Amino acid sequence: MAQCTAHLRNGSGTRCKKQAMKGQTVCGSHGGQAPQNKAAAARRLLESIDPAAAELVRIALKGKTERDRLTAIKELFERAGFGEAKRIQAEGELTITINGVDLNDLR
After folding, report:
1. Number of compact structural domains in the chain
2. Pick from 30, 53, 69: which is nearest to 101 by CA?
3. Rounded CA gap, 8 and 17, in Å?
4. How far is residue 79's CA from residue 72's CA, in Å, rounded to a whole number?
5. pTM, two decimal places
6. Which residue from 12, 24, 66, 91 has the highest number of Cβ atoms inside 10 Å of its Cβ?
């Protein structure tokens, strides 16, 4: 893991000696624990695994039509090993969580 890139506030200009959090450049003391930073780190980690999957997540969350969104969700489930979906039906708000990461937090 990389070292936190933040500097101490004691005026010395010394860099923090803690390890940066996974997918981030700072430690928890310097903003890594903030919910928006955790969500951004999770998004970056998912995107680094498979750029095509990252695009599918974007379409699933922000696709122009419901059909586009459902097709992307179906493909994500198939890639995750859940097999081919025979039918997807959704009403209201949809929450998708993969490996503990709520994809709605990545918007």
Report:
1. 2
2. 53
3. 9
4. 11
5. 0.46
6. 24
pLDDT tens column, 22-59: 888 999 999 999 999 888 888 787 777 778 888 888 89
Question: Are residue 92 and residue 40 in the same domain, yes or no?
Answer: yes
If you write DSSP's letter for every residue of 60-101 in order, what string do you get?
A: HHH-SSHHHHHHHHHHHHHHTTS---S-----S----EETTE
The type of residue at 80 is: A
CA separation for the pair 101, 20 (Å, rounded): 19
pLDDT at position 99 is 61
Q: What angle do CA 82, 101, 42 make, to 5 degrees?
A: 115
Task: Please give the pLDDT value at position 10.
Answer: 82
More confident residue, 43 or 60: 60
Asked if 18 and 44 sit in the same domain, the reply is no
Check: CB of residue 24 under 8 Å from CB of residue 15: no
Which tokens is 67 given? Answer: 């059909």
Q: What are phi and psi of 53, to 5 degrees?
A: -65, -35
Helix, strand, coil content of the chain in percent (nearest 5): 45, 5, 50
